[in-house]
Structure formats: C-alpha cells, structure tokens
Amino acid sequence: KLEKATSVIMAQGDTTLPQHPDLEKTFQLDGYLRTYEHEIKRRYSCFYDLVKRIEQNEGSLEKFSRGYETFGIHCKGDNSISATEWAPGAAGLYLRGDFNDWTIEEKYAFRKGDFGRWHLTIPANSDGSCPINHESKLKLGIKLHNGSIVDRISPWAKMVGRPKTVPIFEQIFWNPPEEQKYKFKNTHPRVQGGLKIYESHVGIASWEGKVATYKEFTQNVIPRIHDLGYNAIQLMAVMEHAYYASFGYQVTSFFAASSRYGNPEELKELIDAAHKRGILVLLDVVHSHASKNTVDGLNQFDGTNTCYFHDGSRGTHDLWDSRLFNYTEWEVLRFLLSNLRWWIEEYQFDGFRFDGVTSMLYHSHGMGHGFSGHYDEYFGLNTDTDSLVYMMVSNHLLHSLYADFVVTVAEEVSGMPLLCRPLIEGGGGFDYRLAMAIPDVWIKTLKHTSDEDWDLDSIVHTLINRRYAEKCIAYAESHDQALVGDKTIAFWLMDKEMYTHMSKKSGDNLIIDRGIALHKIIRLITIGLGGEAYLNFIGNEFGHPEWLDFPRIGNNESFHYARRQFNLVDNDSLKYRYLNNFDRAMIHLESKYNWLLHHQNYVSLKHHSDKVIVFEKADILVFIFNLHPNNSYTDYKIGVQVPGTYKIVLDTDAEEFGGHKRLDHNVTFRTFPEPWCNRANHIFVYIPSRTAIVLAKVD
C-alpha cells in the first residue's frame, strides 16, 4: 500500500517514506533477526537519508531518474543540438564526427558548468534542419590536463556501432524521422499466475551460424515461447558490450541496445510483440560492474581513474577484470537510476534481473567466501552498505513508479536475509532471487553419483531450502553451464550418443533412454519444489546438445557453437521433439493449476532404497517420482492429505514424451481414509522406474 501510494504523489516530490522501518512482521517471520535489529535499522536509515537528500536537491526521485532527458546528445524541438556531459576530471570537451569531418573545432567545444558538467549547444541549420544527421557517427574529444585529446563515447549514447574495419565502437546519432519511430500498440501485461521465464540471448537465437537479429527473434522465437506457455522472457546481452563472448556482462554503453542485432526500433517491436501475447520482458541489467574499455567504454571517461568508479582496489573486480561503480557519487546514482528508467520508458521493458548482486553486497564480492548461513556473515562489516542502499533505492524507484507491473530479480547466491522483503520491513525490495544452488546440486549429482546412489535428502533439501516468504526462481541449469568447458544437463546425461541415437529410427539406446527420462524428471521436480517461479535457458527445454562457444581467436572466430539449433526440435524424426513436448505440457499444466503461487511444499516421502519422492502442491496436486533405474512398483502406498478421486494429469513416461507408455491414464485413484506418511489419507499407485507422475483431484 505504501509503494502504490508513493507512485501517485512521487511526481510532486514527496515519496512519503516512513522515517523508520516497521519490523514487527520481519521478526514474526524470523525471530533470529531481532539480534540484528540495530543493523537493519541503520541500513534503512542510510536508504531513507539518501532518498531525502535526492528529493531536497533534485525536487524528487522521479525527476532525478530522468537524466537521459538532459545528459547526452539530443536534437531539440527546434532542431538545435543540446549536449550535456559529466566529466569532472577533464580539462575540456569537444564534439566531432561526420557532421564536421571529424575535426576538433572551438565552435564545438563544450562550456564548463557546475559540478563537473559540460554543456554544448549547436543551433539548427539555416534551413531549419538538424546540424547532425540521423545515423551520423560521433565521438567526444576529452581534453586532458596535459593538453592531449582522447576519444570517448558519450556514456548516454542511445546507439553505438562497430565499423567493419575497426574493432572499436563509435556513437551513432539515433534520431529517426517520426514516421520511422516504432509506435507501441500494447500495454505492459499483468501476469496473474506463477512467473515462468524463458531466458534468451538474441544473437544465438537461430540455428544458422551467425548473429541473429531482433527481427528474427520477433518472428521466429517469440511464437515458440508462447506455444510452450512461458509468460516472461529474460533478455541477456542487450546492453551494448564490445566483446561478444562476454555474454553481455562486460557492458560498454549502458543506454545503447546492442546494434549487433538491429536498431532500437526493432527491439521495441520485439518487446511489443511479446506484450501482444501476454508475455513480460525482463532485461538482464548489469549495474554491478563495467568493462575496462576506455575509448568505447566508461573507464577513465574524463581521463582520470575515478569519475564513475572507485579508485584503487575498491574500483576493480580482480576476477572479472572490470571496473566497480562508486555508488556514493551523486552523478553515478543519477546515471544508474536513469538507466533503469530509460529501459522502461523508451523500450517498455517490464522489469530487471540485476546481475552480480552477491558481488555488490560484499566488499569481498563473495570471492573465497563459503557462506555458512550464520547471520553474522550478512550483518557484519563485510557487507557493502553503499551498494546495498543503491539497490534499495532502485527497488523503491521502480516499485513506486511502476507498481502495477514491474518485476525485479536478484542474482544472489549468499542467501542475504530480507533481500526479497519489502523496504518498509527493512528489506532490499526485490521481488525474487535466483535459487542458484539448484543447478549446482543437479550437476554435482550427475557428475559424481551413480543413479543408485542419488542422495534424495540432499536433492530435496536443496530444492526447498529457501527463506520463508522470500520468493525464489527455480531453474535446473544455468546459462553458464551451456558455455564451452561445461555441459548442459542433456549433454551430461547423453553426451556423444546424441550424435548417433537421437533419431527415432536409430533404435533403442540405454543411454538416450535414461537421458530423456531423467531430463524430464529433473525439470519437473525443480519446477514442482524449487521456488515460486521457474526459469529455462533458451534451447534447454528440448535438450540442446553440445555447448555454447562464441566466436573468438581460439575457435577461429567460428559461429558454429554460438547458436541454438531449433532445426533439431522442428524435425519430427528426432527425439528432441519428445523433450519439447514434455516441457510444453509441464508449463501449461502449471498455468492451469498455478502451483508456483502455493507456498506449501509438504514432502511426505523420501524413500532412499526405493528412490521414491512424494509431495503435494496447490492442495489438489500430488507429485510422485520414482528415480530408481530398474525397479517399478505396483500398488505403492502414497499418503494424500485431501480425500477424493485423483487422475493422472502429467506422465513423463507417456508416449508423446518419449516414454514407454506403461501407465493407463484412464485409471482413477480413490483415497482411503487411513493415515499414511503423516497424511490423513492414502492411495495405491503403479509407478514405473525412472518415471514421474502428477495426480490431480478431480471430484
């Protein structure tokens, strides 16, 4: 209620934040946090004070976060050019480009203003036209105090491009005529059920060996996503990055949509097409660090080692070889908060997956730190208050202005308490965190444990081990596992056999049979137990083979592995279709019953020798897993809480999913009113080996 009220009056400059958090509910949810009450209040006070300072100095947080309207290079209504840059360490600034034959001229020198800002105005041409043409190339000349001038790109550039002959990006002045600007036709969707995210990379979203485009993604991939039943797309590698193989995580231009895939209007069309089908689009936003590039990045923008970043060791991430933002710097806050607003206001994104949150939260960046879960690890001196407060302000801004639709996700592995609780409760304000331990437990199990020795306790514990009332996004495998040097779950399961036995005509193969069976089971138990939302990386739904490897010197700049082979799943003679069919059925079943919205995860059975797991969801669903490689069980006794008649609504062993069709879906299961496994009733079922079924109450 507070945040919705805030959105109404924020434009007037009053966010009506309470001066102190209300921790009553916080301590009801977790009494152990009382020990850290002072630290929780201190963090909230730092957040509150920063918001108030912004309001006092800038009028409101809403105005402060519209820096993109002033900073950067703009064509005004009268076709004059207005440019403002923040470069406190520079001795001078110049604008040059196609419009003046790339010369450094005093008439295009910026005027020094207050607080490290520089300003330039170029009048319209005598005929009233803009002096800088649409798609002209531009650069800033930064004059250093030694008199030399170095090339830079405006940090606020809306588009940058890489010339074919030079491996350095340059700014493209994007100012299309009105008739060429994309006009949005659809509003932000309101997803009512559980969030089911299809994580995507536009450039690899084609079976061809090339960089795919926004247009191709719109035409070819969004219909697939909609058919599968996912209601959200998470787009990675959209913020411009000079190094393609960085997966988009070495950002060089924060306001520019990557020109590798097309132009800004085509990205808008992509998002609008998703919205038309009721699909949210989340941006993988990287505010945790920035590329070290100088000529086409933020690093040393004004000629100093600071500007947007900390100096010294605090300003460098040793593992990522990148620069770290100074979240206490006023103009850095304006830049980053405006960046969030820009992607929503200009492109109509519906929210963000914040990358590298663990790195931001701790001075150690989480490196060499195996978090034990003791609260001292979260509320001690290792926590970086400045970074945490920035994320709190970001969530406050987004949930105040866009309360009806915005979603924020934290990529966070340490388990920081309260990160996904409301700000008023002393929390971080995120809606979800990624359940990053789940992919790890699956890979460790597949790598190091035979099927007969799978540790059901460890698997189930990992799936349900999350903070109460803090929502998590479950996923069976991460995009990192697809990269060269590692393997997807499908490739760990089936490896080289995928080259010879994925044809339906190739006959039976024990490795492929096992792989297809376990691939389905792993995904079903993950979405069933692992969180309040679910995520799949592009192509993994159909068991994409091999690995992902971007063009680089080491592979002769090959695109062979930098693609998603949708042609495999489109070929009805291949077994990939089975996995795709199952994923579709699983996702649509969740949409029907909305079990992700139900928090209860009562696991009634973990039978180690039988390798059977049973749990209930959404009051009327019973999930039954037989992980045993050989044993099938007839008349197996299962505890059920709600009495009634049950039927099979999903069966991993069904023929259309590549199974052996060992179950009769016409059979009904009637409960008996005798307790079993701490449940009030029981039923008897047949569960074949390496099979999972979902039963639904039908009366």
TrEMBL record:
**What Gene Ontology molecular-function terms does this entry list?**
1,4-alpha-glucan branching enzyme activity; cation binding; hydrolase activity, hydrolyzing O-glycosyl compounds
Ranges where the Glycosyl hydrolase family 13 catalytic domain occurs: 201-583
Q: What are the BP-aspect GO terms?
A: glycogen biosynthetic process
- Among the Pfam families in the record, one is CBM_48
Q: Is Ligase given among the entry's keywords?
A: no
Its Gene Ontology cellular component terms are:
cytoplasm
- Which Enzyme Commission numbers does its entry carry? 2.4.1.18
Sorted alphabetically, the keyword list is: Glycosyltransferase, Transferase
Q: In which pathway does it act?
A: Glycan biosynthesis
The catalysed reaction is: Transfers a segment of a (1->4)-alpha-D-glucan chain to a primary hydroxy group in a similar glucan chain
Q: Which SUPFAM superfamilies match?
A: (Trans)glycosidases, E set domains, Glycosyl hydrolase domain
Keyword Manganese attributed: no
Superkingdom, according to UniProt? Eukaryota
- Enumerate the active-site residues: D355 (nucleophile), E411 (proton donor)
Positions of transmembrane segments: none
Q: Which family does it belong to?
A: Belongs to the glycosyl hydrolase 13 family. GlgB subfamily.
Q: What is this protein called?
A: 1,4-alpha-glucan branching enzyme
